[in-house]
Amino acid sequence: MSSFGFGLITAAVLAIATVGFTMQFAVTNVLNLAYGSIMINSAFVAYYVNQHGVTAWVALLGGVATGAIASWLLNRFIYTPFQRRNLAPITVVIVSLGVDLVGTFGLQAIVGGGYVSFNQSQGHEYHILGMLLSGLQLVIFGICAVVLVGIHWLLKYTRLGKAMRATSANRNLARNSGVKTQFIISTTWIISGALCGLAGTVFAMNAGVFEATSAQLYIVLLLAAMFLGGPGEPYGAMFGAVTIGLATEVSAAYINPEYKDVVAFLVLIAMLTFRPFGIFGSEKTN
Amino acid sequence: MSVELSKKGLVLTATGLAAGYDGRAIVSGITVEATPGKVVSIVGPNGSGKSTLLKSLVGVVKVLDGSVKVGDTDITNMAPEDVAKIGVGYVPQIDDVFPPLSVKENLEIGGYLLKRHEVNERIEAVLEFFPKLKAMMTRKAGKLSGGERKMLAMGRVLMLSPSVLVLDEPTANLAPIVATQLLEEYIRGFANFGSTVLLVEQRAKAALRISDWTYVLGGGRVVLEGPPQDLAQNPIFVESFLGGGAKAHPPKD
Ligand SMILES: Nc1ncnc2c1ncn2[C@@H]1O[C@H](COP(=O)(O)OP(=O)(O)OP(=O)(O)O)[C@@H](O)[C@H]1O
Ligand SMILES: [Mg+2]
After folding, report:
1. CB contact at 8 A, A199 and A37
2. Counting CB atoms within 10 angstroms of each CB, which of A110, A116, A231, B44 has the fewest?
3. Residues spanned by the domain of A189
4. Ligand 2 centre distance from Cα of residue B54 (Å)
5. Cβ of A173 and B97 within 8 Å?
């Protein structure tokens, strides 16, 4: 049953990450495969801030800021120039894959290959609904829940969120309605980047120990969760993340932890085969 | 019918316009003018460049040569969001709504440039105009019927009280009665109120009936233009657009 508890936290973290990832894809049209490397870079910034005597929960903000700034820069100076050249969309995907490798192994070159961990207490242990959860895990879960509610509120009730969804649905028509889509897209990079940085940092906290390549396969989970929920569907992303998060952790407990990413990968392949537009997505999303 | 949804118009002119995709002109040498209080229509066969022309007027397609003006403002290659701000409302032929957004949200995006407190007032006004939308405010635009969807597309563009309406086949897919109502009451109504209306219309007969001036596009150029009465007498026009022998009704006023 504790694998279920751990799976719940994994799922919550994955939900944050996937919502950011799918928002990027939906609003900006970039499938940013460098997402995982920005996650781990953000975690390392938070880790170094933490090393300098700042409480881990405050250092977390450094991770969030890193994700936001790095994603904005990445779009401004790499993705946008490529998109402007009117190349096939796959070009930007390949570029993002390159960025991912540079981001991950560049980080490794700087920080070395060793494992590190946050200077942070695990807190008390709690038995909740038959699950064993640490105080740390509960806080992470709480943060994720609050952030997801916040994103829901943003998308559903704010002018910015509606403009983001309109830009995603029909960019030209949004512009014809007076929406400055360039601004909306930049803002989306900042918000989704912040989610990426947050997810990376709490992912590292939850893992306990981590190193530069710890998030390298995370992209498989992100893709699986995104396709499960339907590409570009934030609510689908939450559902997909919970499903993938639980499926991988529970299967890890019963089969073999080594196969965690394989399970996610199988789900991804099954989705692409049978319902490429996701469980909630409509055929038109494709 | 109350038509205070649009504003008094501005003159829209395109002069020597060439426009197209990837630097290749689809339309060229186009000079058209739409004036307040008038319905100006563009007709022409499929692929003659009608939509491309409209898109180039509102900033969606690149103008390669010539200029576009609204009132005294040069809007040649102006960003679409700024064209909207100036008071030009554009309803595209396809992709004319935001499918995943609710009807209400579509209207809210239509009123994106309004002050926060004005949006709901404005939605009320638009709903007075299209009362059928009232019952579907929470439905997703993607789930509307073709006619309901066109109504929403018109409603969206009216949110900003445009002075110039640029409409690309607003009656496509509509039942004949609804199409006639949209053209003769609503669209003619905007012009009678003093707005400027530039309309692309597939049904030549219906277009002539409500227009004050009609341009005929062929192969990316204006091949014929004039008041509808004259076109209805023109044997070439009658032959190609009114299906021979058929006689266009003269405009009402
Ligand atoms: N996005 C595009 N890229 C390249 N060529 C295009 C694009 N859109 C349209 N065209 C081409 O431009 C030409 C004119 O198309 P346009 O849509 O302007 O015609 P239309 O008169 O509006 O036709 P219809 O009556 O079918 O709506 C066509 O040959 C079309 O293939
Ligand atoms: Mg057309």
Report:
1. no
2. A110
3. 2-216
4. 9
5. yes
- pLDDT at residue B243, rounded to an integer: 67
Give the angle B100-A179-B7 at the CA atoms, nearest 5°: 105
CB contact under 8 A, B101 and A180: no
Residue of A283, A278, A263 whose CA lies nearest to A227: A278
Domain contains A211? yes
Residue A259 lies inside a defined structural domain of this protein: no
- Say if residues A8 and A139 touch (Cβ distance below 8 Å): no
Nearest C-alpha neighbor of A40 from the set A89, A140, A110: A110
Mutation test residue for ligand 1: of B42, B43, B48, the one with most atoms within 8 Å of CB: B48
Chain segment B137-171, per-residue pLDDT in tens: 999 999 999 889 999 999 999 999 999 999 999 99
In a domain, A283, yes or no: no
| Residue B59 DSSP symbol | T
The pLDDT of residue A66: 98
**ipTM value for the complex:** 0.91
CA distance B222 to chain A (A): 26
Contact criterion met (CB < 8 Å) for A169 and B160 = no
Domains of chain B, each with CATH number or no CATH: 12-96+163-241 (3.40.50.300)
In degrees, rounded to 5, the angle at the alpha carbon of residue B55 between the alpha carbons of residues A79 and B98 is 65
Hey, is the C-beta of B90 within 8 angstroms of any chain A C-beta?
yes
What is the pLDDT, as a whole number, of residue A51? 96
Number of domains present in the structure of chain A? 1
The single-letter code of the amino acid at A222 is L
Tens digit of pLDDT for each residue in B77-105?
Answer: 999 999 999 999 999 999 999 999 999 99
Q: How far is the CA of A199 from the centre of ligand 2 (A)?
A: 46
What's the confidence (pLDDT) of residue A282? 59
Q: Is residue A35 part of a domain?
A: yes
Per-residue pLDDT band for B201 (boundaries 50, 70, 90) equals very high
What three-state secondary structure class fits A277?
A: coil
Q: How sure is the predictor about A283, in pLDDT bands with cuts at 50, 70 and 90?
A: low
- For the stretch B5-25, pLDDT in tens is 667 789 999 999 999 999 899
Closest chain B CA to residue A232:
B100
How does residue A6 score in pLDDT terms, banded at 50, 70 and 90? Answer: confident
- Ligand number nearest to the C-alpha of B55: 1
Tell whether B97 lies on the interface with A, counting CB pairs under 8 A.
yes
- CA distance readout (Å), A151 to A58, A68, A123, A158, B5: 21, 15, 28, 10, 35
